[in-house]
Amino acid sequence: MKRRGIRIVGVVLAGLLSSAAATTPAFRDLNHNGRLDPYEDRRLGEAARVADLMTRMTVEEKVGTLLHGTLPAIDNPFGASGKGYDLAAVTTLVRTRAITSMISRLAMPPAAFAAQNNAVQRIAEGTRLGIPITISTDPRNHFAVVGGASVAASGFTQWPEPLGMAALDNADLVRRFGRITAREYRAVGLHMALSPQADLATEPRWPRGLATFGADPARVSRLAGAYVEGFQGSVAGLARDGVATIVKHFAGYGAEPDGFDAHNAYGKQVTLTDRSFADHLAAFQGALRAHSAGVMPTYAIVRGVTLAGVPLEPVGTGFSHQMLHDLLRDTLRYDGLVVSDWGIVNDCPAACATPTAANPQTPRAIGMPWGVETLSVEGRVVKAVNAGIDQFGGLNDPAPLLAAVHAGRISSARLDDAVRQVLLVKFRLGLFDDPYVDAAAASRIVGAPASVAAADAAQRAAVVVLQNRNAVLPLASARHRIWLYGVDPAAARSAGFDVVADPAAADVALVRFAAPAEPLHPFNFFGAMQREGRLDFRDSDAGYDALKQASGRVPVIVAIDLDRPAILTNVRDKADAMLGLFGTSDAALIDVVRGRATPRGRLPVELPRSSAAVSAQRPDLANDSADPLYPVGWSLSLKARK
């Protein structure tokens, strides 16, 4: 009997089922031997199935299990594509290198995406033991799209960014988001979320604050825990229909000096104190209590911190025995999977460390071996595994790890411990029993009307009212001529506005722009994509110039995408009303402006008063700039019109 390409064998559950219900259930014959083996038997517990499977695995298969590769796409080995996977290349990774975990960066319609992931599972089905593929993803249910950090929604529901959820501070909403998103992920064949970020956004210039829940340890802990519960489907850990979460980036990543980022050589160190590190660590407690399936350590070298009175070794956290074994495993009693961030064992050549216009960093020169640059790749693998890494993100080549195992530099016991962690997640997700999805159903589940309605409501609620002089908002119905900048005219017209080309001809102006940024590192692969530098608005900033064009001629509503905490000191005097956005569609914005929706957000981070205040504050401390223009929790009341 065949079903969706899966070979199965019949087994009678004599004595286990009542005579009325007794049938001959089907089991997958994963190793193609015509018998039901213990690891194929869904009646057994996960531990027993893992133990049986591991007795059948070769060293090469075990080593492949420790690699979390990248699913290569057509014309794009980085995987970012809308064309589909390069299935020939996938076959090499799965059948030759025994890799059974990979990240997907495809952005395509749900049914097509599901079909592509089914094709990957069919490749795995043909291997010696039929071990299914765990397919992971960066977040893809928001608005921000940054290479290596997030993926375009492409049909998935779009929710406020995590910082927008922090503006609402509603754990139940975060759980609901997690359950809806998990259903969408599983519908297309995604099993693992490389999220949430439990990092504290203590440095306002840091480009990754938007993906956090802010800078308050208690709030971050509470909401990150709710995120894990929602995605995984249970307060007790990973449910069979859930999505495994990998909470990141353990710990201190948000304290980057000058707001730089540890993806880049110039941002590889963070400096904290024992006291501030305790706050950054506390932010992870909720996710750990919720039994997140995995933890991902930060790239950064953490300086200024002692554990048990001993300073941390100056190496990236993925290589730190103190951080992963002593702190995470022994002190915090974490017993799940530890996955490295991508590329930590790769070399960092000149194009990585000091790129130039003539020699820019490309994907081939991506490496983050911070603190262990002088070690060989094999030496880095050895140090990381023995420190506590169970699986290497972004590593597609098993040779260094295999050589280390054969040389006895990694013990068979440590290898088995790591393999066991990876396999347990697969069994808990039910992938050994059926890794395939219904592509037709994916189109009904992903972006279902009820899910879209919930996400849209959250977008509107998360808006923060910063200023509303003379009660400009919500707009009276008589004000219908509008001048726009940065807003889709179609969204305004659909709400009944008459869009005009000149602010002098308008009743009101709506100007939308993002927080400022500067291209400080244009030749770094990640630095070129990340928003770095200043937070204050200056002449020649396009959105600021549009504001000045309208200011004084017509009432002006400014909507600011606060992907970073902008300095609004020279904006608020030119604006009649100001709205802070954290992942909001133009349609949602128009509804708030028109009074069709009530914004309920409160600032989840402070907005500084000046660049001098930003420079003077400490990157490891939360909300510590002098005399902020808008403090944490700021909001004005604005009720929807009936």
Automatic annotation (TrEMBL):
Q: Which GO terms describe its biological process?
A: glucan catabolic process
Q: What are the protein's UniProt keywords?
A: Glycosidase, Hydrolase, Signal
- Residues covered by the Glycoside hydrolase family 3 N-terminal domain: 109-423
GO MF terms, alphabetically ordered = beta-glucosidase activity
Where do the segments described as Disordered lie?
608-627
Ranges for domain Glycoside hydrolase family 3 C-terminal: 499-637
Has keyword Hydrolase? yes
Concerning InterPro entries, the annotation shows: Cellulose_Degrad_GH3 (IPR051915), GH (IPR017853), Glyco_hydro_3_C (IPR002772), Glyco_hydro_3_C_sf (IPR036881), Glyco_hydro_3_N (IPR001764), Glyco_hydro_3_N_sf (IPR036962)
Give the range the annotation lists for the signal sequence: 1-28
Entries under SUPFAM superfamilies matching the protein: (Trans)glycosidases, Beta-D-glucan exohydrolase, C-terminal domain
Q: Would you tell me the protein name for this molecule?
A: beta-glucosidase
Which species is this record about?
Sphingomonas populi
